[in-house]
Structure formats: C-alpha cells, structure tokens
C-alpha cells in the first residue's frame, strides 16, 4: 500500500467495469433524448405540448424553456435524467469510499498496512473526481457531436460550462457522502447526506418555481445555484460554480479533519 497513489489505483482496478456501465447508461440517455429535439423543437411542437400541461407541473419540472435547444438539453438530460443517474453513481462511490468499508471491517485491514486515514480519504476522493472527469469528457464529446445534427444550437463552450456545472452539482452529493461517512462511519448517514442534498435541492427548486412568494427558496437549493442562469445557454456562472465546488471542498476538509482523529468503528 506504500506505492505512489496505490489506493487511487486500487479504486480503479476494482471499479472500472462499473464506471464503464455508468458511461454507457449516460451515453444511451444522451443518444435517446437529444436527437428528438430536431423532430419537435424546430416546428414549435414543444411549445404546444408544454402549453397543454398544467402550469404547476411545467414549473416543477422546469419545462418552460424546452422550446430552445439549451433549455431542452437542460430539462431532459443535464437537469433531470443525467443528474439523477450521476447522483446515484456518486452517492454510491462516496459511501463506499469510507463508510461502507468501515462498517464491513475492510477499512481496518487497509489501515493495518501503514496507511494513514487522511491518505485513504484523499486518494479515494481523488479517484471519484477522476471518474467524474472521465464521464464529463464523454458527455461533452457526445453532446458536441449531437449538437448540430439535433439542431440544438448550443455554443461548444457552453456545453462545457453545462457539463462542469452538472459535475459540480453531483460532486456536492459525493462530498457529502464522503465527509459524513468519514465523520460517522455510518453507511446509512453517508447515503442520507449524499442523496439528501440532491433531493432537498431539487424539491426546494421545484417549490421556488411555483410562485414569486416562495422564490426565496432558490437561495437554499444547490440545484437552483447550478441551473438558474442556464449555463448551457449563456455560459459558466462562476458564482454558482464557486458555491458548488467550494462547499464540496468544505465538506471534504471537515470529513478529513474528523476522520483523522476518530477511532475506527469495530
């Protein structure tokens, strides 16, 4: 365990098949949803469909912008199915990083090889970041390739901005699962923290969309931070990215500090 980035490399050795599976699933979703826009979007059919839906449902799902290529990509993939799939993946990875191994006794075996707790957290977190980066490159490549054939009309670097935003939003869930798992050693708490951030953020955004009286709920929703400015249409929102990645870092640092001083559960 004393080799350079041994723990980092071990994560990939043990999980590369799963990573490929998630890439295939996300790619399938992109190839399924994005080409549909050229069939409906150009003729205004989406606007007609949206007008036929209840206003509350449209506001909840954020479908009011489906008439544009960027809004469609956000409403179908980046803010919905892609977000859900990637959140499921990262919460699982984040929980496995510390909490799952601690509950099943595997973490004690790792620490017995003269590996510090801080190193375990750092290298396993780095592996998750690397997985997200790989997935991000794949997403950018596919969306970039489908952009013109699907008549989405998005600027290439706006695609990058939207992808980095979605990665930041899901990294926040991963960091919560890692950090809380490191603080508590509980798989249940780790899953709850990671999934909770995603679910609560989405719900607060949906509620805030219902009327101007409750728009203030957006301030407390990471989902709103990510998508309120529609980075796929206008480019990166640096304030939102700073919040998402900064809070992720704070959760990881807090978990690292507590984990280094906490006894491993037996």
Give the topology.
Elements: H1 6-33, H2 37-40, H3 45-51, H4 55-61, H5 69-104, H6 106-111, H7 117-147, H8 156-184, H9 187-208, H10 222-227, H11 231-234, H12 238-261
Helix pairs in contact: 1-5, 1-7, 5-7, 5-8, 5-9, 7-8, 7-12, 8-9, 8-12
Please tell me about this protein's structure.
With 266 residues, this protein is mainly α. The protein has helices spanning 6-33, 37-40, 45-51, 55-61, 69-104, 106-111, 117-147, 156-184, 187-208, 222-227, 231-234, 238-261. Helix 7 (117-147) runs antiparallel to helix 8 and helix 7 (117-147) runs antiparallel to helix 12. It is globular and about 60 Å long.
What attributes characterize this protein structure?
about 270 residues, mainly alpha, about 75% helix
Largest sheet: none
Order of helices and strands: HHHHHHHHHHHH
> How helical, in percent, are the residues?
over 70%
What shape does the CA trace take? globular
Which ranges are low-confidence, i.e. pLDDT below 50, for 5 or more consecutive residues? none
Count of β-strands:
0
Describe what is shown at a glance.
It is built from twelve helices and no strands.
């Amino acid at each position: 365990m004393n080799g350079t980035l041994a723990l980092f490399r071990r994560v990939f050795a043990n999980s590369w098949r799963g990573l490929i599976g998630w890439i295939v699933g996300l790619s399938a979703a992109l190839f399924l949803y994005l080409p549909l826009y050229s069939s409906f979007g150009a003729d205004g059919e989406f606007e007609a469909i949206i007008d036929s839906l209840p206003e509350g449902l449209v506001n909840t799902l954020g479908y009011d912008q489906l008439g544009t290529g960027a809004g469609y990509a956000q409403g179908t993939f980046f803010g919905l199915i892609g977000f859900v799939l990637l959140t499921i993946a990262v919460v699982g990875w984040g929980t496995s990083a510390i909490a799952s191994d601690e509950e099943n006794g595997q973490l004690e075996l790792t620490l017995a090889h003269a590996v510090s707790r801080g190193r375990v957290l750092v290298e396993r977190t780095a592996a998750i970041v690397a997985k997200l980066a790989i997935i991000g490159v794949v997403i950018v490549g596919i969306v970039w390739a489908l952009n013109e054939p699907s008549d989405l009309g998005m600027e290439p670097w706006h695609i990058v901005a939207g992808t980095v935003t979605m990665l930041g939003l899901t990294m926040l869930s991963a960091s919560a699962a890692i950090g809380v798992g490191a603080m508590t050693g509980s798989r249940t708490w780790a899953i709850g923290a990671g999934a909770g951030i995603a679910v609560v953020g989405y719900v607060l955004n949906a509620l805030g969309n219902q009327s101007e009286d409750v728009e203030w709920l957006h301030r407390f929703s990471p989902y709103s931070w990510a998508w309120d400015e529609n980075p796929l249409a206008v480019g990166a929102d640096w304030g939102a990215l700073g919040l998402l990645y900064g809070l992720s870092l704070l959760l990881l640092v807090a978990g690292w500090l507590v984990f280094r001083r906490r006894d491993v559960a037996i």
